[in-house]
Amino acid sequence: MRFLLVFDFDHTIIDENSDTWIVKCAPGRKLPNGLRNSYQPGHWTEYMGRVFVYLGENGVKEDEMKRTMTTIPFTAGMIELLGFIGENKELFDCIIVSDSNTVFIDWILKAADFHKVFDEVFTNPAAFNSTGYLTVQHFHAHHCAKCPENLCKRKVLKEFLDKQLERGVSYTQIVYIGDGGNDLCPVMFLKKDDIAMPRQGYTLEKKISQLAQSLSPVECSVLVWSSAVDIMSYLKLLIKE
Length: 241
Description:
The protein has about 240 residues and is α/β, with parallel strands linked by helices. The chain has helices spanning about 20, 35, 45-55, 60-70, 80-85, 100-110, 155-165, 185, 205-215, 230-240; strands spanning about 5, 90-100, 120-125, 125-130, 135, 175-180, 195-200, 220. It has one domain (about 5-20, about 70-240): Rossmann fold. It holds the Pfam family Put_Phosphatase. This is PHOP2 phosphatase. InterPro entries: HAD-like_sf, HAD_hydro_PyrdxlP_Pase-like, HAD_sf, Pase_PHOSPHO-typ.
């Protein structure tokens, strides 16, 4: 028995959006209108690239960004849940698939000492360049019309599972925990023995229920959560079985 837990990051592990939280570092804790209005749907990564240039030009350094990012609160119950998973790593493989970036996720997980809970993190690669500005790139290229051009989470999940199979690892069940519209594509890839856990009141839950209403429901089971303690209760049941 081995279970795969797939987590989104923003509004799932942490209770905020890491990309919008960084704006607290900007002069006056806000972005100029021109920059704010420059976002085009499906091109969030490029938009964040411009935000990081703006922060760099305004003298915002790496240590200030790190201090700000590590103040983001975890979602209710998440610290307990990640602690529980950490104690039961022999049963759970655990990955993050996120539209945030490697620098932010690394800072936040290490500050809270949760980086060992996760086997792999799939997110947009980021690094500080020679001028000290944070830069971010697309995670990969893909051909999925449903997803933003920098990241198709279904493709990530499928490739991870294929790689695990080559190593001789298969899973009794996949548990997918997320909140956003870009989590629907991987959820639709899940099979009937798997379970999707959308966060209550967020986009993913609404999209799954719209599919059910239009009589094309997702194949997997669905269990809504509001606190990560709900997820932990379910995982405890899984282990007992």
